[in-house]
Design a protein that fits this description.
Elements (H helix, E strand, L loop, with lengths): L1 H25 L15 E6 L2 E6 L4 E6 L1 E2 L20 E3 L4 E4 L12 E3 L6 E2 L1
Parallel strand pairs: 3-5, 4-6, 5-7, 6-8
Antiparallel strand pairs: 1-2, 2-3
Amino acid sequence: MKTRITALVLAIALICALLPAILLSASADVILPPDPFDDDPVSGICGENLTWSYNEATKTLTISGSGEMDGWSSFPSVPWYSYRSAIKSVSLPNGLTSIGDYAFRSCSRLTSVTIPDSVTGIG
């Protein structure tokens, strides 16, 4: 009886120790933090005719192009999510017509955004 209890306790301890690794490996949406040694801005697509780039040196998120920004169903799906706590300013182009849902949520250091007159909707 004592041997079975010991084996059960060890099995539970092993499962608890491996659970975080199993959960992380099963997730396809793991977002890695930015590389602090990368001097090049990180960039991507954020709308049909819009791109984004983040410059670590200036802490600036720049949106380029025109049209509607994509909307996201939750903040972790926003492409610049990894940089949210570092972004200090956002540059939006004239020609941007909408700002997507959750676009700048939790950007806790954001101090400068100028919304162009072309924006007619904010998510």
